[in-house]
Amino acid sequence: MGAQLSGPRRTLVLGVGEVPWDAPVAAADDAGLRGDGFFETLLVRGRHAVRLAAHLDRFERSAAAFGVGLDRDAWTALAVAATADLPAAGEAVLRWSLSRDGLGLVTVRPVPDGVRAGRRGVDVVTLARGTATVPDAPWLLAAAKTSSYAVNSAALREAARRGAQDALFVDADGLVLEAPTANLLWTAGGRWFTPPRSGRAVLPGTTLEAVAGELNVEEAHVRPAELAGADGAWLLSSLRGAAPVLRLDGTALPHDADRTAALRGIALGTG
Amino acid sequence: MGAQLSGPRRTLVLGVGEVPWDAPVAAADDAGLRGDGFFETLLVRGRHAVRLAAHLDRFERSAAAFGVGLDRDAWTALAVAATADLPAAGEAVLRWSLSRDGLGLVTVRPVPDGVRAGRRGVDVVTLARGTATVPDAPWLLAAAKTSSYAVNSAALREAARRGAQDALFVDADGLVLEAPTANLLWTAGGRWFTPPRSGRAVLPGTTLEAVAGELNVEEAHVRPAELAGADGAWLLSSLRGAAPVLRLDGTALPHDADRTAALRGIALGTG
């Protein structure tokens, strides 16, 4: 544990190579400093980036939405170079980002304490998002994982302010959308559900995709009050895998440790 | 003109001072590279930053929305230092940005050709924004000028792809909101109008504020078809001042050069 908390931090720049972890890399007028770019966050276990191909696929979809090219081989090589020296056991966080001006960055850092704690469970609050529908329009970048994360970060700060570890956005119709950095999965009556994504402010996650490849996950609208009556709920994301929702706006949810273990196995690629 | 096009480019870092224009200033893990910060863009005429106090006020409101402090005196001093050596005549663009991690940047650069051309008039296309309403919730940062500009930039690229120079976002109810970097003003029957801002995805602009201080500007909902029948429409922003809308989705709008000159005088502080 101690080794991981103080573990390696590395920064690699596309077309340049490794630089010191905290070296300045972006010029003041780079599009990346206007949120005008996209990124992926991957979990590395040992020296293996979990679901590398799925992340590359989404990174490529983001690039297409931004109208820029992407060299899959170059990013794969950067991922390999960045993680080659990691300990054979243990975990790390790998992040790719590419700005519209072409600034490509790869970082490796230890898994934050909050992520580890989140795997054991999170308290969640619901937060209004306002957005009702997202038209199928390329300029809205709905399929891209953009670097414009100001609202996502502000929502997580609001959750912390309320004593919770995560949030679920609720749209103007009162229906649950997603967490700021995770998708929602819940179970009721022996079935598995996730909120519909088409035409809504929900980014398809690679972890949800992996779970849906193993379980029959149906799309269903859900309101917070209904979710609080589910047989269990989880936030699915690359770093935490499947984080069980322990409380929703203060109401305790059932938590089945065996289900969480099974979901985590699928999510982290160890199932 | 030539001197302005090839004019000075400067970068100053809060707490550090001047660095070369294109020097890297942001580390890979700075919040600024996740769109997690806020900014202001000011027009400098001679060595005078137009509406400095109004921009400082909004910068301060943005800081409050992000839960960070702001030293007005430090930013004023940076603005003075950045513009002190500019030619006594002519214009430049001054930009302030502050990331949640505290990376404060001031840049000065020449006014882009597109901005100068835009003052003579812009062709505009309407683009769906999807958002209908924005709840009064601090985590949505509605009053902040955030650095999360990916969608704004993508909308301007879509406008260019359609042969236009700017865009107007239209909400899920078919009502006009704002341009990606400007507010809308129009006139009809001798009255002045702008779309309502409260509870909607419309950022209050300092230029609109200045115009509303001189003219009686009423709030009114407007659909693109109604706007096309107006007696004139303008996009108000710090750099262009008042850019007359020459065409909306291909339909020519009336353009009264005297009105544009009067609005520009108010907008640029020369009226």
Automatic annotation (TrEMBL), chains A, B:
It comes from the Bacteria. GO terms for biological process: carboxylic acid biosynthetic process. InterPro entries: Aminotrans_IV, Aminotransferase-like, BCAT-like_C, BCAT-like_N, Class-IV_PLP-Dep_Aminotrnsfr. GO terms for cellular component: cytosol. Its EC number is 4.1.3.38. Pfam families: Aminotran_4 (PF01063). Transmembrane segments: none annotated. It is an enzyme of class 4 (lyase). GO terms for molecular function: 4-amino-4-deoxychorismate lyase activity. Keywords: Lyase. The keyword DNA repair does not apply. Belongs to the class-IV pyridoxal-phosphate-dependent aminotransferase family. This is 4-amino-4-deoxychorismate lyase. It comes from Kineococcus aurantiacus.
